[in-house]
Design brief:
mainly alpha; about 80 residues; 2 helices; coiled coil; rod-shaped
Length: about 80
């Protein structure tokens, strides 16, 4: 399973938990422990959002391999020659 699939699965689990907690709150009222669980769920959701942004964002520090061979002559066709100084 890919990271993206795991993140999606985690988001679905948090949404299911939220639905269950809301149903519980509607059934027993604003009980302190239910409210605390809802606060914990909000923090988990925020943490997951940050994690998704970090994992799904393009990596900035990836090395790019530059071949050692000569470039095709047409690559330089529109470049101006500045000399060797």
């Amino acid at each position: 399973m890919t990271i993206s699939e795991e993140l999606d699965r985690t988001r679905a689990a948090l949404l299911a938990l939220e639905k269950s907690l809301m149903a519980l709150r509607n059934r027993i009222g604003p009980h302190l422990d239910v409210l605390r669980l809802l606060d914990d769920l909000e923090r988990c959701t925020a943490d997951l959002r940050r994690l998704e942004q970090q994992v799904r964002a393009p990596r900035r520090h990836e090395l790019v391999t530059i071949p050692d061979g000569d470039y095709d002559h047409d690559f330089w066709a529109d470049a101006e020659h500045e000399g060797l100084g």
